[in-house]
Design goal:
By secondary structure, the protein is mainly α. The chain contains 2 helices and no strands. The N and C termini lie close together (9 Å). The mean pLDDT is 68.
């Protein structure tokens, strides 16, 4: 359980890092890219559970 929780926190911090990294992108492209990335992270999280 602790491993899953730490993995979730790591993926969340990674998502925040990517958000900061790609904040210079056009506002139209940015949410779409972030949404796709978050969906992939969430799916990977579900698979690991």
């Amino acid at each position: 359980l602790f491993f899953k929780l730490s993995f979730f926190l790591n993926s969340f911090s990674f998502w925040s890092l990517m958000k900061n990294l790609f904040s210079f992108e056009p506002p139209l492209l940015n949410p779409l890219f972030l949404g796709g990335l978050m969906k992939k992270s969430f799916l990977a999280f579900l698979v690991i559970i």
